[in-house]
Write a structure and sequence with these properties.
heterodimer; A: mainly alpha; Fumarate Reductase Iron-sulfur Protein, Chain B, domain 2; 2 domains; about 0% strand; globular; disordered C terminus; B: alpha/beta; Glutathione S-transferase Yfyf (Class Pi), Chain A, domain 2; Rossmann fold; four-stranded parallel beta sheet; 14 helices; about 10% strand
Chain lengths: ~190, ~290
């Protein structure tokens, strides 16, 4: 059993995963469970059992729409969407090829735009996303319509405090790295209990 | 008189520009002061919390730092922005360790003197339905619509502090106040898949079409929302025979207030609502009721 993995996910999410007693309420209400291989309940079980490899390579963690229905209905107060966030973070950090590479690419591009401008900019984001995923033709109709309606400004808006934004990005990355080291260090002590 | 600080968010500068225009017009009509937060930054949306938990809180925390200096409650039209800022405010309020970390990352001292509030709540409770009712000049008699909240405005309730997350009522109360018929349905807080709209569009389309079918079944001719991500996803991904226009609730307020600028908002929609609006009872008939 991979106790380290359970502890890392608990530390990253801040959620008491061992409290889950598998009542399936989360799965019954999940809007995307139809597309999932495991669903939220089995994912929690797999985290409890430390099934790191299967989880980080699963499509499910990228299919979660972060709608928070599961966490709202959980009788044990586990915010399962936060567990899904933690699993996505671990997947990105561990270097496995994400099962849904487009989603990972989208998040990276989105944050790159925000880091650069301080705000999002649809036109840059969508063009970069299409080029990177080679998904050039999807949604061309509605994209063109939105452009013609003047809803996709070409010139990005930016803010003066861009240096503050860059500082926030750097310091946030440092903070998470520190937390990860702390969670790994505390893992063997917990196991010895 | 109340004064609010306004955080439009990135969508309202682009794909939801009619939402922004209608928010400003409605506040002006109600004579409530709304000042845009200067130098605001993107909240990081769903990307930040999928990549880095500290960044997901630190980006909104910078906006809280800017807003707390002004001392007025921060109004959020976008459900996703609201959720991110409310989450940051929640952590800053309840978790001293996280607070210390965020203060260091952002470089500020959290005061907790202002509240992060969703636009729907500010208008229906802060300004009040009575005040809104008095301003209605052209009741929307004949408009049958379902109120749609989506996810991030209502969940998780511990953080959002919004109404009952399974059965919120504010949108319906507002629609009735405007003279429209709020149609009951069971899908008001079901997810539309907006967060997957670009990366898994087939899943988003399934969720959208399910919602639209249920709204039609309930007898609605339109969907009314407060979220820009829901609005564009719902209008863009409908593929059924019957297409339902999706309004921002502030657009309907502007229409009911008789604001002339409301005419400029309809052409911004991907599903043109004008045929539906043309079928509403004309003002003379409404006045006679």
């Amino acid at each position: 059993m991979n106790q380290d993995f359970l502890q890392t996910v608990e530390a990253l999410s801040g959620e008491p995963i061992l409290l889950c007693y598998h009542c399936h309420k989360c799965t019954a209400g999940c809007p995307v469970v139809k597309e999932m291989e495991y669903g939220p309940d089995r994912i929690l079980r797999m985290v409890q059992l430390g099934e790191k490899e299967r989880l980080l390579r699963s499509h499910d963690i990228w299919l979660c729409a972060a709608c928070e229905t599961c966490g709202t209905r959980c009788p044990n107060g586990i915010d399962i969407a936060k567990v899904m966030d933690a699993l996505r973070m671990e997947a990105l950090r561990s270097g496995v090829t994400p099962a849904e590479p487009d989603a990972a690419k989208f998040h990276r591009l989105f944050l790159f735009v925000v880091q650069t401008l301080g705000r999002s900019h649809e036109a840059s984001l969508l063009i970069a996303y299409k080029l990177w995923t080679l998904n050039l033709l999807a949604d061309m109709d509605s994209g063109l319509q939105l452009f013609l309606k003047g809803k996709v400004p070409v010139i990005p808006k930016t803010i003066k405090g861009r240096d503050q934004i860059r500082r926030i990005f750097v310091k946030s990355a440092e903070a998470v790295a520190r937390e990860e080291i702390a969670s790994v260090k505390s893992a063997p002590q917990q196991e010895a209990k | 008189m109340s004064v609010y600080t306004y955080y439009p968010g990135c969508s309202l500068e682009s794909t939801a520009c009619e939402y922004d225009a209608s928010v400003r017009a409605v506040f002006k009509a109600l004579e409530v002061e709304l000042h845009e937060l200067e130098e605001w930054n993107c909240c990081g949306a769903s990307s930040a919390h999928s990549v880095n938990p500290v960044l997901a809180l630190a980006l909104p925390a910078r906006n809280l730092a800017l807003a707390q200096a002004l001392g007025h409650d921060l109004v959020m039209p976008c459900a996703a922005c609201f959720n991110r800022h409310k989450s940051a405010d929640y952590e800053l309020r309840h978790d001293p360790e996280r607070r210390k970390e965020l203060e260091e990352v952002v470089g500020f001292q959290y005061q907790g003197n202002i509240a992060v509030r969703p636009l729907l709540e500010v208008l229906t409770i802060g300004v009040g339905l009575d005040t809104i009712h008095k301003r209605v000049k052209r009741p929307l008699v004949g408009l049958k619509a379902v109120g749609y909240y989506g996810c991030l405005l209502v969940r998780p309730q511990e953080v959002t502090q919004f109404e009952n997350p399974e059965n919120p009522r504010l949108m319906n109360q507002l629609l009735e106040t405007l003279g429209a018929e709020a149609v009951e349905w069971s899908y008001a807080t079901e997810c539309c898949g907006g967060g997957l709209s670009l990366t898994k569009s087939s899943v988003a389309a399934r969720l959208v079409n399910r919602l639209v079918e249920r709204a039609c079944e309930a007898g609605a001719a339109a969907i009314v929302t407060s979220c820009p991500l829901c609005q564009i996803n719902l209008e863009m991904r409908q593929s059924g025979m019957q297409k339902l226009p999706v309004f921002y609730f502030t657009e309907l307020m502007g229409l009911a207030f008789g604001l002339t600028e409301a005419e400029n908002w309809w052409s911004k929609h991907l599903i043109d609502p004008r045929p539906l609006l043309a079928g509403l009872k004309p003002l003379q008939q409404v006045a006679a009721l």
